[in-house]
């Protein structure tokens, strides 16, 4: 029996042991799972603690709402803005009172951003930058909003904008003030300069002419001061508009050089221009501003140069981006101290910075030039050596314009077998002429004195001789005699416009002709290309005949009696019949009762009815009529915006005050052609 129970007991024992082991293992697994759950709960709790600590520590306001807008969480800062406790907000739909807001920006991820001004519980208004984003909460979506206080930034921006508006308003007021002052100053200046021109056209003895010319010179100096201040003010106010039109820069530069030549020749110095052979016929830019830059630089160089001269040169650098104009103005003046070069382009500075400086001027010319160059995207460079002179170099990104023509240039004459001698003590004109001749293939020699010229003629054969009268009448006559004795084919004398009357006929002095300084390459080549007879190159154009405006009836609307008298006398001298009106209302009455007129000159600023409104009413009255009166605005404000405003009012032309009487003959000639 015992033997039979042994296996059963063993089996029961094993089962009991297995069950115990299973229970032990289950207990251990449960313990391990419990440990893992506890670890997870601890980590979650720790993470939530960190999250709550971060939320509590942040300076931003944070609130979370469910789909119905009920608050599920709010931090202390949000609750403080509402004047509540965070726990009291849970489940409510309380929100901040919005006073102002900008547009909501919604990103592709659904995040919404906006800035809003809200009222806090203490009554203060604060600006916040809000970010709202969706947050998954089980099967539902909650919205989490965070806001950062940006009151200081918004107020700073608004203060800046308000200051900018005040500055712009002040700038506009200053511009209006300057425009008014400009008109009020130019109006009497117009009378002074115009009357001086009228008097200079009458019979005067030398003493009287000297006095009248002094009046005109002083008036022109004052006009230059006004223009400089106005230009600087326009640039400072950012009211300078630049044109982008094709223009012939070499021709423009020739005009500027010839304009400044009398000023240089009055001082006994020269001014000359050199243009590289490959310079484009036309470039794209603002011709008026480039002219102003050139006048400022060359005029400044003339002012400070007492001996020698001023040289203007043009070259063009073609680049992958288009091209760059290099405009250089060099002089043989006293030079500029090295320590003054860095401040040379500041306002009211001159090369001579001493209190007892020997040259007048505001010191605005170079400052205006630098600002114009910068505005055009260029740069300006200056180099100088004391006692040797200065060079100012302007680099402007002006693109070449193709298909405009040849810029009025003449073909280079075939001079490959010609030898030329230039006798001139000239720092710029002689080298520039030699360069032009060399481009045509001539072999050129320059000497700077009578003795050197005679030695050159005695030692070699020349086909062309150019002698500068600045060497003296006796010297150039000896050069002419020696040239004829050597069989020179062509001999020319270089003269300033003032020299021509005193020198007499070039043939009487042994020359074939003369060239007026500054010499244009065109004049030089035309003279050399002439096949028969002497040619007086660059002769002054004849004066306009007094009957330029014959049979033209002109309506003049001008409230200033002196300017009205000036314009009336100048027009009557040209043969026109003038009907004067003292203001816009009277001008309209004259237009209706005394018409038709061929031309109307109308001052823009007049009492009762200004020039712009007068022009508009004249145009309205002409509606449906075949005859259209040619209207020309007279204004002391000569800016581009003023011209645009005049044309918008119906004007066909635009003349700046002080009125340049030399512009009246061509104006009447064009109108006579229209009337014919």
TrEMBL record:
The name this protein carries in UniProt is: Sensory/regulatory protein RpfC
Q: Which residues form the Response regulatory domain?
A: 419-532, 553-672
- List keywords of the entry alphabetically: ATP-binding, Kinase, Nucleotide-binding, Phosphoprotein, Transferase, Two-component regulatory system
Gene Ontology process terms (BP): regulation of DNA-templated transcription
Enzyme Commission numbers on file: 2.7.13.3
Quaternary structure note = At low DSF concentrations, interacts with RpfF.
Provide the positions where the record notes the PTM 4-aspartylphosphate. 468, 603
PAS domain segment(s): 47-99
In this chain the Histidine kinase domain maps to 180-400
Species this protein is from: Methylobacterium oryzae CBMB20
Q: Which reaction does it catalyse?
A: ATP + protein L-histidine = ADP + protein N-phospho-L-histidine
Q: What class of enzyme is it?
A: transferase
């Amino acid at each position: 029996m015992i033997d039979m129970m042994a296996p059963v007991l063993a089996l029961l024992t094993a089962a009991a042991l297995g069950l115990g082991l299973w229970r032990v293992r289950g207990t251990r697994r449960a313990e391990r799972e419990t440990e893992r759950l506890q670890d997870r709960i601890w980590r979650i709790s720790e993470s939530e603690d960190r999250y709550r600590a971060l939320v509590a520590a942040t300076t931003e306001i944070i609130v979370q709402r469910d789909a119905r807008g009920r608050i599920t969480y709010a931090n202390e800062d949000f609750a403080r803005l509402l004047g509540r406790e965070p726990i009291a907000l849970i489940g409510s739909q309380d929100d901040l009172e919005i006073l102002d807001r900008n547009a909501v920006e919604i990103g592709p991820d659904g995040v919404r951003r906006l800035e809003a001004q809200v009222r806090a519980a203490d009554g203060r208004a604060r600006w916040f930058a809000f970010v709202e984003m969706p947050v998954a909460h089980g099967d539902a979506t909650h919205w989490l909003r965070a806001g950062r206080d940006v009151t200081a930034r918004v107020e700073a921006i608004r203060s800046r904008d308000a200051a900018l508006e005040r500055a712009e308003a002040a700038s506009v007021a200053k511009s209006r003030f300057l425009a008014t002052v400009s008109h009020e100053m130019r109006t009497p200046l117009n009378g002074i300069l115009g009357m001086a021109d009228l008097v200079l056209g009458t019979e005067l003895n030398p003493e009287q002419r000297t006095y009248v010319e002094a009046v005109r010179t002083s008036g022109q100096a004052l006009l230059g001061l006004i223009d400089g201040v106005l230009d600087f003010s326009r640039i400072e106010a950012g009211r300078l508009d630049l044109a982008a039109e094709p223009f012939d820069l070499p021709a423009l530069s020739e005009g500027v050089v010839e304009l400044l030549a009398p000023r240089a020749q009055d001082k006994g110095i020269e001014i000359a221009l050199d243009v590289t052979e490959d310079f484009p016929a036309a470039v794209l830019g603002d011709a008026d501003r480039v002219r102003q830059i050139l006048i400022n630089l060359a005029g400044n160089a003339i002012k400070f140069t007492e001996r020698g001269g001023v040289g203007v040169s043009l070259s063009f650098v073609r680049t992958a981006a288009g091209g760059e104009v290099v405009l250089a103005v060099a002089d043989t003046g006293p030079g500029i101290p090295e320590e003054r070069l860095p401040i040379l382009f500041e306002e009211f500075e001159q090369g001579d910075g001493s209190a007892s400086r020997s040259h007048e001027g505001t010191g605005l010319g170079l400052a205006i030039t630098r600002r114009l160059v910068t505005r055009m995207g260029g740069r300006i460079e200056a180099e100088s050596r004391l006692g040797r002179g200065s060079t100012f170099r302007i680099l402007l990104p002006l693109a070449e314009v193709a298909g405009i023509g040849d810029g009025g240039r003449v073909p280079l004459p075939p001079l490959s077998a010609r030898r030329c001698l230039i006798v001139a003590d000239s720092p710029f004109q002689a080298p520039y002429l030699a360069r032009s001749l060399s481009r045509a293939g001539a072999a050129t020699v320059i000497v700077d004195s009578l003795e050197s010229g005679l030695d050159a003629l005695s030692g070699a054969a020349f086909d062309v001789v150019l002698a500068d009268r600045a060497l003296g009448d006796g010297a150039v006559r000896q050069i002419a005699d020696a040239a004829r004795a050597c069989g020179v084919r062509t001999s020319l004398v270089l003269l300033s416009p003032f020299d021509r009357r005193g020198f007499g006929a070039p043939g009487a002095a042994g020359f074939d002709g003369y060239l007026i300084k500054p010499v244009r390459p065109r004049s030089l080549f035309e003279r050399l290309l002439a096949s028969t007879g002497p040619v007086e190159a660059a002769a002054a154009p004849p004066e306009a005949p007094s009957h330029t405006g014959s049979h033209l009836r002109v309506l003049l609307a001008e409230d200033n009696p002196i300017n009205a008298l000036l314009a009336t006398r100048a027009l009557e001298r040209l043969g026109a019949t003038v009907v004067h009106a003292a203001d816009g209302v009277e001008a309209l009455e004259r237009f209706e009762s005394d018409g038709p007129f061929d031309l109307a000159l109308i001052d823009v600023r007049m009492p009762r009815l200004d020039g712009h409104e007068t022009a508009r009413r004249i145009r309205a009255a002409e509606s449906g009529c075949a005859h259209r009166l040619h209207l020309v605005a007279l204004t002391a404000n000569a800016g581009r915006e003023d011209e645009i405003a005049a044309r918008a009012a119906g004007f066909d032309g635009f003349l700046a005050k002080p009125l340049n009487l030399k512009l009246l003959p061509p104006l009447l000639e064009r109108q006579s052609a229209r009337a014919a």
